Amino acid sequence: MLKKYALEYYREGYNCSQCILKAAEKVYKVKVTKEMIKMCSAVNMGFGTGGICSTIIGGIMVFGLVFDENTAKSMRLKLIVRFSEKYGCTECARLQKKVGGCEKLISDTADMIEMIIKEHL
């Protein structure tokens, strides 16, 4: 379900981290404020430098909303490792060349986030 909602929000114009957060609000019933969405407005495109993919950032934020700090930190590492294993890197600029767009990254990352959350429930 996370993937479905995340892709819907992305198609509505939300950036990668925003659509992951907004989807988590629906799926996991966490409170995501307008301010949280606004904070993510500067996270896209690898923090504007082609750095870490903001789908990962959104996922890490979701972990922090749903779980305690220690659990969220271990989940963070799992997401980064799984993402890196799948794509060979976490950098937005390299991923854009490799994958050719954000929809695939959003879709796959949402699946990874859901899987990791299920492992911890």
Structural class: mainly alpha
- Indicate the overall shape: globular
Strand count, sense and closure of the main sheet?
Answer: none
Span between N and C termini?
16 Å
Q: In angstroms, what is the radius of gyration?
A: 13 Å
What sequence of helices (H) and strands (E) makes up the elements?
HHHHHHHH
Helix content range: over 70%
Q: Low-confidence segments, ≥5 residues, pLDDT <50?
A: none
Say how many strands there are.
0
Number of helices: 8
Can you tell me the number of structural domains? 1
Average the pLDDT over all residues and give the rounded result.
93
Beta-strand percentage range: under 5%
Question: What does it look like?
Answer:
Helix 1 (2-11) crosses helix 2, helix 2 runs parallel beside helix 5 (54-66) and helix 5 packs parallel to helix 8 (102-120). The protein is built from eight helices and no strands. The chain is globular, with a radius of gyration of 13 Å. With 121 residues, it is mainly α. The protein has one domain.
Per-chain topology:
Blueprint: H1 2-11, H2 16-28, H3 34-39, H4 44-50, H5 54-66, H6 69-87, H7 92-99, H8 102-120
List its traits.
single chain; about 120 residues; mainly alpha; 8 helices; about 80% helix; about 0% strand
Sum this structure up briefly:
The longest helix has 19 residues, at 69-87. This protein is mainly alpha-helical. The protein is built from 8 helices and no strands.
